[in-house]
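User:
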Amino acid sequence: MRMHKKSHLEERIAACGDIVTVADMSEKNMKLAAMAKDRLPLQKIFGNSNPVHLEIGCGKGKFICEKAAANPAVNFVAVEKISNVLVEALERAKSEKLKNVYFLNCAAEVLQKYFDEGAISVIYLNFSNPLPKEGYKKQRLTHPKFLKIYKNLLCAGGRIIQKTDDKDFYLFSLESLKSEGFSIVSVCENLAGNPVEGDVETEHERLFKDRGKAIYRIEAVKE
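Assistant: Predicted structure:
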């Protein structure tokens, strides 16, 4: 189903301009777009040099806002390419007066445009679209082409934490991470029955658990 554009969308995003960078997507070639460096001034944005955690695909912002509120000594950057969804996350962060959250309105393909190598300590991939059709495999956010980008962004010992309700996507991600040289720290095939301390539910996660679906979790480390 096509999502209706939210009323006054551009004005609402502009009102949150101090906590978001909206990507210039005039260059349709993603490789060329990523090469045009436009580094986020993280020290200026957050006013400190605390570790930076990155969520790719933040949706309406439940996860990132709760994480930020619970971890004031960590800086969080949340990425969401669909502005119609992102606006709710922006307004939530504003209303909660969170000082350690910043947002990027961009595609994952161009993340190297905004961060120095090794700038990120943790990457969260929460319920990314599993894109089950074979022809869409290269667009999955744990495909090796994306993992190469994440490896560049992560510091030594940096982690990727993925959650999904799709078993095939979970298995695909495991193999992709191993093939790209990540060490698998932990896996869980029933997160509801084996909760992880400090974990935060997303909007989708609560819905899936209520339906009795299994939640899969992977934690991997860059060597």
